[in-house]
Write a structure and sequence with these properties.
The chain is elongated and about 130 Å long. Helix 1 runs antiparallel to helix 2 and helix 5 packs across helix 7. The chain has ten helices and seven strands. The chain starts with a helix and ends in an 8-residue tail after the last strand. The protein has 362 residues and is an alpha+beta fold. The N terminus and C terminus are likely disordered. It folds into two domains: 110 residues, no CATH class; 160 residues, Heat Shock Protein 90 (2-Layer Sandwich).
């Protein structure tokens, strides 16, 4: 399809430019011929024969040279246009592949910088679409698993009670309540994720200049009792630093990181929250011991429903949405960055918030 369209464009461009060249050369040749003949007519008497020979030779030259130049120009233009349109044709085929859901990167050749940039943008788009498709497929699989497990448990208990295999007792009712609570928590997390997504742009008006050190200490204090109850060493130290942020969003991101550290705590080290003001903004670090992470875990752990805990233990599994909410709040709503670095079983989550001191800079 694209080959036919591309060839048609090449022929049209070549025909138009050939016609323009032919007209211009014909006009210029005519004036050259007329001017030359006028000059010959001014020759002294007795040179008429030489003038006639000159006219004939000039006419022959013009009749042969001009068409030859036009033909050569047409051929040159055709092959030059073909060289330009070939990568465009390849991009067209590539976009057709994207539309069909195939994300393999084809080989493209571009002789011009502008076309090379366009090809690079298309390849970046292809990579993003491929990653989005992988994330969507993983999210659907994980969501189905998360919902199926508690629903299957509740259904199994109820069927057993209906068939008289087991009788109702406080322990059974408590198990049913826990499973239903898991479903409710999961739905609430999904709603929360949706709410943060919807408020990405509207939160701009709610931002204010705050001492982020104080916000960190306030939020960290909410988890102090929880960690101390399980005899987990817990420290927080945040330096003062004025940053233009949305307070509730930052608090939510910190609480999600603290909850993640608590749920996945493994070992004997301390959980440490610290904040530091920098020249370009403010950096928050939360370090804690936990299960070792693979490269795949670090790549996907901020995506929705991804959980590094392959066994999906009920205590540590969570809903797989907490870190995705952190990423949404920090990156989309504050133009910041969030990542994790690991050394063995020690993990450090890092948040950087740029110093955006006005709404216009946001």
């Amino acid at each position: 399809m694209y080959r036919k369209k591309s060839s048609s464009m090449i022929f049209q461009l070549t025909a138009v430019h050939t016609l323009i060249i032919a007209v211009l050369l014909s006009i210029s040749s005519y004036f050259i011929y007329v001017t030359a003949c006028s000059l010959v007519d001014q020759l002294p008497a007795g040179e008429e024969q030489s003038g006639a020979v000159f006219r004939e030779q000039l006419a022959v030259v013009l009749w042969f040279v001009v068409p030859a130049v036009i033909a050569a120009g047409a051929c040159f233009h055709y092959f030059f246009s073909k060289k330009i349109t070939r990568p465009l044709q390849q991009l067209g085929v590539s976009l057709d592949e994207l539309k069909a859901g195939r994300y393999e990167q084809p080989e493209t050749t571009a002789a011009f910088r502008e076309i090379e940039q366009l090809s690079s943008h298309v390849n970046e788009l292809r990579e993003r679409l491929r990653e989005n498709e992988e994330t969507r497929a993983r999210m659907m699989t994980d969501m189905a698993h998360e919902l199926r497990t508690p629903l299957s448990n509740v259904s199994g208990y109820l069927e057993a009670m209906r068939d008289g295999v087991i009788e109702g007792e406080p322990g059974l009712y408590n198990s049913l309540h826990q499973e239903s609570r898991r479903l409710i928590d999961m739905v609430e997390q999904i709603q929360e994720m949706s709410r943060w997504n919807e408020q990405t742009s509207s939160l701009l008006v709610e931002k204010e200049q705050l001492d982020l050190g104080r916000v960190i200490e306030e939020t960290a204090g909410l988890y102090r009792l929880k960690f101390e109850k399980d005899e987990i060493a817990y420290y927080s130290s945040a330096a003062p630093g004025e940053v233009f942020v949305h307070k509730k969003g930052i608090q939510q991101a910190l609480m999600n990181l603290l909850e993640n550290a608590y749920q996945h705590y493994e070992g004997t080290g301390a959980v440490h929250v610290e904040g530091e003001s920098t020249v370009k903004g403010y950096e928050i670090k939360l370090s804690s011991p936990g299960p070792e992470l693979t490269e795949e875990d670090r790549k996907w752990m901020f995506e929705r429903f991804y959980r590094a805990d392959a066994s999906r233990n009920r205590k540590t599994g969570g809903s797989g949405l907490g870190l995705a909410i952190v990423k949404n709040i920090i990156e989309k709503q504050h133009s910041g960055t969030v990542d994790v670095i690991s050394e063995g079983n020690r993990h450090v989550f890092r948040i950087f918030l740029p110093d955006l001191t006005s709404r216009h800079e946001y």
